[in-house]
């Protein structure tokens, strides 16, 4: 098998086929009616949540960031597994409200919320994470017009960042949240408005595989919350500590040391509970919960050799999986883990470039990488595709039909 070190054992292999949710890829593809498709393994999602709960202090609440994967069936599954949702659009709000998650446990983040979105959030009774003073004024007007007193968190742009993270979302100049130094003035203004202050949302970054960096960010987050809480009109009732837990995508990536983070957080909690006696503490994760549970499956339509290089041309592509093509935030393109899912082990491993069906050189799923000796009709599986897969892809590009998505 030619899988990167971190990937074996994610899914069982039986009769040389990868099995997702207890079904072989060939069975799944028949059931779905063909390729390409995304499949998400609900058992694996459940195990990830259980591992997290095991590792973290018992009173840390776990929220799911719907942005990572908004498939309605998956969000419905998550409603029974986590303590709350974080969402970032009216579309995600509609998906969330169709689940069993109580609205009071849902929060709405995003730097450009429209009036219609603020109104929908206020009417639904969800918590709004305020990203600016102007947004606060707009929400106050909208809520007051409906006689509502909307619950709010202030989203802080911290004065530190999550080091060695894939996407930095705090520290320095950022469009997200309110600069920490402006928060005291904003809290003064908030007192006069018909909004119910709950606490702070401090999200410093995403996709970190370094326990040390996450530990440091969590410590700094609690310290910042302590400093800002002095200016708060009421005791803090909700403190969202952010997330940033990453998953291994590329050769050499090491799995995050969850127990190190959990133990460190447990050591911070006695002081945190003392300083915020009324607070509920939340961490908010997307990809860590669902990223490894998903695969993207396409079929080899053609195999050709061009000037010595083998190309496998599939019926998938970047229009359905932008991230695997390297065009979603990667600086240097690296290959996602990929294998021939209906012929996992094979004698002759050869290098091939796996491309999609789009007429652009950007449409590469695997660049000159070792894959089994795939033939026309074989199923190419891109692993680590459960988060920021279909949802982060330009599906209209070239006008092919959308792929199926199944939760199994
Ligand atoms: C994107 C985002 C998340 C989820 O990030 P992951 O890397 O998927 O865990 C959580 N919270 C906020 C505010 C986000 O913008």
State the CATH architecture of the largest domain. Answer: Alpha-Beta Barrel
| Name given to the CATH homologous superfamily of the largest domain | Alanine racemase
Count of extended strands? 22
Give Rg in angstroms: 22 Å
Helix content: 25-40%
Task: Label the overall shape.
Answer: elongated
Written account of the structure:
The chain is built from ten helices and 22 strands. The chain has 408 residues and is of the alpha/beta class. The protein has two domains: 13-40 and 292-407, Lyase, Ornithine Decarboxylase, Chain A, domain 1, CATH 2.40.37.10; 70-285, Alanine racemase (TIM Barrel). The strands form four sheets. Strands 4, 16, 17, 18, 19, 20, 21 and 22 form an eight-stranded mixed β-sheet that branches. α5 crosses α6 and α8 runs parallel beside α9 (258-275). The longest helix is centred in the middle third of the chain and has 19 residues, at 211-229. The radius of gyration is 22 Å and the shape is elongated. The model is unreliable at 1-6 (pLDDT under 50). Bound molecules: pyridoxal-5'-phosphate (PLP). Pyridoxal-5'-phosphate (PLP) is lined by residues 65, 67-68, 86, 109, 169, 203, 206-207, 243, 284-288, 387.
């Amino acid at each position: 098998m030619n899988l990167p070190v971190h990937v074996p054992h994610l899914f069982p292999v039986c009769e040389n086929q990868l099995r997702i949710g207890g079904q072989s890829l060939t069975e799944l593809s028949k059931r779905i009616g063909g390729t390409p498709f995304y499949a998400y393994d609900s058992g694996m999602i459940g195990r990830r949540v259980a591992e997290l709960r095991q590792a973290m202090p018992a009173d840390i609440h776990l929220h799911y960031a719907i942005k990572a994967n908004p498939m309605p069936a998956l969000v419905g599954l998550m409603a029974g597994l986590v303590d709350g949702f974080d969402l970032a659009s009216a579309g995600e709000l509609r998906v969330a409200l169709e689940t069993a998650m109580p609205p009071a446990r849902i929060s709405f983040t995003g730097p450009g919320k429209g009036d219609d979105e603020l109104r929908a959030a206020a009417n639904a009774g969800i918590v709004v994470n305020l990203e600016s003073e102007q947004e606060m004024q707009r929400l106050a007007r909208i809520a007051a017009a409906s006689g509502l007193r909307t619950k709010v968190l202030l989203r802080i742009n911290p004065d530190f960042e999550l080091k060695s993270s894939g996407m930095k979302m705090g520290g320095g100049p950022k469009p997200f949240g309110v600069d920490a130094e402006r928060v005291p003035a904003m809290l003064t203004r908030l007192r006069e408005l018909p909004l119910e202050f709950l606490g702070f949302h401090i999200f410093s970054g995403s996709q970190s595989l370094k326990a040390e960096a996450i530990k440091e960010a969590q410590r700094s987050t609690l310290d910042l919350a302590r400093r800002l809480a002095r200016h708060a009109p009421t005791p803090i009732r909700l403190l969202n500590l952010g997330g940033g837990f990453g998953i291994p995508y590329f050769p050499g990536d090491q799995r995050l040391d969850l127990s190190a983070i959990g133990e460190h957080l447990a050591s911070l909690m006695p002081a945190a509970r003392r300083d915020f006696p009324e607070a509920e503490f939340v961490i908010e994760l997307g990809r860590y919960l669902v990223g490894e549970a998903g695969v993207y499956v396409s079929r080899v339509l053609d195999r050709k050799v061009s000037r010595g290089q083998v190309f496998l041309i599939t019926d998938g592509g970047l229009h359905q999986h932008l991230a695997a093509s390297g065009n979603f935030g990667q600086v240097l393109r690296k290959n996602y883990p990929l294998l021939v899912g209906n012929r996992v082990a094979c004698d002759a491993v050869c290098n091939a470039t796996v491309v999609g069906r789009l007429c652009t050189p950007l449409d590469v799923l695997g660049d000159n990488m070792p894959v089994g000796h795939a033939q026309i009709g074989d199923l190419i599986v891109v692993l680590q595709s459960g988060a920021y897969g279909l949802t982060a892809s330009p599906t209209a590009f070239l006008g092919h039909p959308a792929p199926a998505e199944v939760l199994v």
